[in-house]
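Hi support team,

I submitted a single chain yesterday and got back a structure, but I'm not sure I'm reading the C-alpha cell output correctly. Could someone confirm the output below corresponds to the sequence I sent? I've pasted both exactly as they appear in my results page.

Thanks,
R.
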Amino acid sequence: MKLLTRNTDYAVRALSYIAMENGRTITVAELSEELKISWSFLRKILQILSREGLVFSIKGKGGGFRLAQPANRIFLLDLIRIFQGLIRLNACIINNTACPNIRICILKKKIDIIEKSIISELHPVTLETLLNQQNELLHLQTI
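Hi R., thanks for writing in. Yes, this is the structure output for that exact sequence:
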C-alpha cells in the first residue's frame, strides 16, 4: 500500500519547482529535465493541474506553466484527492459488494480511526509548508 502514488509525488515536485521560480513561466521541457521526469508523463500531470485550477497554462512562444494559486492555498490533501481519490486504507468490499460484517467489524473501526488521524495530520499541509521545511533542511545542511 502506498499513501502517495507516483502521480501525486510528481505533481508535488512540479508544483514545488514552479513555486520556487517566483512567477516565472516554466516549460514542461525545463521541468522534465530538472526533475528527471518523462516529458509526456509530466505533461499529463500538468494538464490535470491546469484543469483543476492549480496552474495556468500559457500557450505559444514563451509559454509554459505558472501557479494559479498561492503556495499556501495548494493543499497536499487536494493533490491526493485529484490524483488518487479519497484516502481509504480498506474499502470493506468483497466481490463488489459491501462486507456483511461492516457494522460490527472491530478492524474497520480501528482503520477508520487511523484514516481520520492521517487526514488530520495531512489537512494543514500546503505546498508552502513543504517548501518551508525543505528550506529549513537545506539551511541546516549548510551549518
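A quick pointer for reading it: The chain has six helices and four strands. Let us know if anything else looks off.

Best,
Support desk
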